[in-house]
Design a protein that fits this description.
The chain has eight helices and three strands. By secondary structure, it is mainly alpha-helical. It folds into two domains: 3-209, Cation efflux protein transmembrane domain (Alpha-lytic protease prodomain-like, Up-down Bundle); 216-300, 2-Layer Sandwich (Alpha-Beta Plaits), CATH 3.30.70.
Length: 301
Amino acid sequence: MNEEHRSATREARRVTLAAIVANLFLAGLKIVCGLVGHSHALVADGAYSLSDSTTDAVVLIGIGYWSRPPDESHPHGHGRMETVASLVIAAFLALIAIGITYDALGRIADPHPPPRWIALVAAAAAIVIKELIFRWTRAVGRKHRSPALIANAWHHRSDSFSSVPVVIAVLVGKINPDWAFVDHVAAIVVSVLILRVAWSIGWPSLKELVDTAAPPSMRNRIEQVASETAGVKEVHGVRTRYVGGGVHADLHIGVSEHLTVRQGHDIAEQVKERMVSDIAKLVDVVVHLEPVENGQDARSG
């Protein structure tokens, strides 16, 4: 593992450990204040914060695996482990959302005492803390092109959003105690927000596992960069797939049949270097050489 990988791993672990501590604190704060403050929505929100600690642990354990460089057993790297971690997070979020909805629907007709101000204070504090954790985690994820860290960051943001309905429900219940049932409605709203985040995390990861290609814009850009490289006469057979936070591609280029093996190899290397340098998220390229009859370069039209 080179120094860049070690630095990325250290930074990812640091932000994830901080998030675990924050989530455990917030989970306890929400659950206790929810019980004392007569807010089932805040208790549900606390359970969601507790789930954050579990998903953070998934990321923390996984970092040591998916950050490893390619080896003999995994020639394309270990990025797919990161994809699996993102799917685990999405599935866990979906289960939490279903549980919250089931509990809220079962209690919505029950008598509900008016909430207390302590529930509002706890929910507001959680929004601020989780927003800070979200911004920090997202910044680290973007810096190191880590889908799992970015997914976990949005998990933190969803926890922040989930406290907003709690704040509204507490205010409504304080204004009119007869509307205290809104607390259960808020719990259902929280679950919908969680499901939305679960989908946004899980669907891209699922597409990656079934080798969905990169968007046409990237494939067109790959073909364009290859065609504009000196010595390339034609480009075809462009294929792409996602691996972790990056894209792997392979393509066929046609070069003059009169070139030596060394000259053809040098052109292929130049194509690869230009692509990795110019195209965001493209981390590996395999270039296949094919001889063609003399003619104009592809970059000349």
